[in-house]
Each structure stands twice: as C-alpha cells, then as structure tokens.
Amino acid sequence: MPITVVGSIAYDSVKTPFGERQRMLGGAAVHFALAASFFDEVRVVGPVGDDFGERQLEVLRARGVDVDDVEHVRGGTTFFWRGEYGWDLNSRETLDTQLGVFEGFSPKLSERSRSSDVLFLANIQPDLQHEVRMQLPHARFVALDSMNMWIDVARESLVRAIESVDCVILNDAELRQLTGKPNLVAAAREVLSWSDSPGPRDRSPGPRAAGQGAAGEGRSAEQRGPSVIVAKQGEYGAALVTREGFFALPAYPLETVIDPTGAGDTFAGGLVGYIAAHPGTRGEAAGQELSDELLRRAMAHATVLASFNVEEFGTERIERLTGGEIVARIGELHAMTQFSGAPLALRG
Fold first, then answer.
1. Residue 290 pLDDT grade (very low, low, confident, very high; cuts 50, 70, 90)
2. CATH 3.40.1190.20 holds for 3-337
C-alpha cells in the first residue's frame, strides 16, 4: 500500500564524541521515507528553500521515493537544526534551530499523495496533522508522531489529532507527560481508552470523566481513536501496547553508535512501512484489526532499521543499506530475543 509522509525536510549539523557533520541531509520526512522505502512506495510532502538542491533530492529518488510533492519555496531557506551529543547519546543539546520555510508550512498534497492507503504524520504542528488527516479520510492505516513541545503548548489540538489516527508513536516520557500517568503501560492504556466513547471528551490528565459511552458507539471516522501505541525507549528498545496485550523488544546491541539523529523517524519508517507491505491489513476502525503477529514483526523490522541508522551520521548508513543486510539482522535479533519455556517445580 503506498505511503504518504508529511513532515520536515532539513539540514542538520551534528557533533558527537565520535565526529561531526555540517549541513547533512535530515528531517523527519527524509529519515522516515528512506526506511519505509524498503517496503513500499513512499510519497514525501514537505517544504525546502533555495539552498536545497538536486543532490539532496537524488538521495531520496535513489531509493524510489516520490518527491513530486516536495515544495520549493522560492526565496526561502530550508529548515536547519544544530545539536551536540555527549557520551550519553540518549540526550542532546540543541544549539540552533532555524525554521526557515518550515515556519509557514501549509501542506499541499497532490491527488496522488491523497490517494495513498497509508499515512504517516511526522512531528509537525498538531492542527496541521489533523488537517492532513482529513484529506485522506479513506486511508487504511494512519500513524502519528509528536514531541513534548506540542504537549506543552498545543495539547488540545494534539489530542484531537491523536483521536483521528490508528497508531501513536511517542517516547515513553512523552506518553507520561501527555496523560499524567506514572508509567508507560498506564499511559498507553489511557490513550487507547480515548477511542472508547463518542463526542467531545475531556482529555486532560487525571481520572476519566463520568458518563462516557460504550466503545465505538456513534463514533465518526474523524474520531476513531488509536488501537496501537508504540513507546520509543532509545537505547533500551521499544514497547508495543494494544488493547489485547503488550510486547517489547530491546534495541539491537551495537558496539559502535555514532549518531542517533533520526533514529526515531527511521524506526517509524520501518514500522509503518512493514505494515504497508501487507495490504490485507487495516487499522481497527477501518474494519479489520491488525494482528498481534504482524505488529510484532513490524516492531522487529523497525528496531533493525533504527540500529543501522545510528551506525553513521545522518542518512549515510541507510543510503548504502541493502535488503539482505536487513534480513540478516532480523534473524540475529530473533535469535537474541527468543527463549523456550523450561518447566520447573518451584519451592513454596
């Protein structure tokens, strides 16, 4: 199923203890698209300025990514981010952010992009996410990413956007911040419960409002609500929470990690791309619930794609990545994470 991704296209300048790069290709839409392109056709929607050239677009085209909806804003400059990581690569310091053309971004989707069966709403202003979501009312599977800033300054808009998608991808701290719940599982269950009743709802952190209706009763497609929650946990892996259960994978163990920039979006590209490659599946509200087995395999592919991303700066490793390398590492991850039950008579 073709995938449309709407998000940032950027230049990143990054310094880590292992080196640095100046103005390398980056942005959420770029990292997502390169990863998802291993599974299906990807259409990118995002703005760039006069400083963005054919060489950068060719990185995407080389992976078969459709860049027809990359908007060139004449007279503008491309979104730019500069950051530095210390020895703890789970945290970083932002040194400079220049929004450029991204500041006035108003997504313009062609008919081709609007016809995609799968949509990924990368980290952009929540009202824009909801606006784009409404342009693809018949999408079979829709996933959304966000960040702590939008939880702080546009929480109501973010909740509205979340209520219109099938899958929410956040890190565990953002899930707790969003819901006011003390741990990952409780926070994920809270977000899943947002689809349990129709109409306007109070989604402020805290106890659920009384008098909410039964699950799915009278709900519109606009407010179908998520059935899949994915919590990114950096070097510790990721967790999957659905109404039926819980699944978690560790990060693939690496001796060398160079640059984690874009790893979360690469993870999302692997997850959503794998789901898109199985056209018989849909988001729960679209009619046929995603199977637990499929979601677990999608998590594994997402984990592996993200592990390749961090081995070098920016998109450097993913640009050279082959399908054979992905398959081999999937096998290694499977061998590391499986075990057989060994019944034992316990004392007491």
1. confident
2. yes
Q: CA of 53: how far to CAs of 20, 46, 69, 135, in Å?
A: 22, 14, 15, 29
Half-sphere exposure of 12 (CA within 13 A, CB side): 23
pLDDT exceeds 70 at position 213: no
Distance CA 118, CA 143 (A): 8
The candidate with the shortest Cα–Cα distance to 14, out of 255, 267, 264, 262, is 262
The conformation of residue 284, written as its DSSP 8-state character, comes to: G
The string of pLDDT tens digits covering residues 100-109 is 999 999 999 9
Q: How far apart are CA 277 and CA 39, in angstroms?
A: 6
Task: Name the pTM for this structure.
Answer: 0.90
Residues whose CB is less than 8 angstroms from the CB of residue 179 and which lie 6 or more positions away in sequence, other chains included: 186, 187, 190, 191, 205
Q: What are the angstrom distances between the C-alpha of 22 and each of 14, 83, 89, 155, 314?
A: 7, 10, 18, 34, 10
d(Cα 255, Cα 241) in Å, to the nearest integer?
A: 29
- In the chain, what are the domain boundaries? 3-337
Q: Quick check: 212 pLDDT over 50? A: no
pLDDT of amino acid 285: 42
Backbone angles phi, psi at 193, to 5 degrees: -70, -15
In this prediction, what percent of the chain has a pLDDT beyond 70? Answer: 89
Kindly report the CA angle at 102 between 99 and 105, in degrees rounded to 5? 150
Query: Quick one: which H or E segment has residue 323?
Result: helix 323-337
Longest Cα separation, the chain: 75
pLDDT for 225? 85
Written as six digits, the tokens of 128 are 């824009």
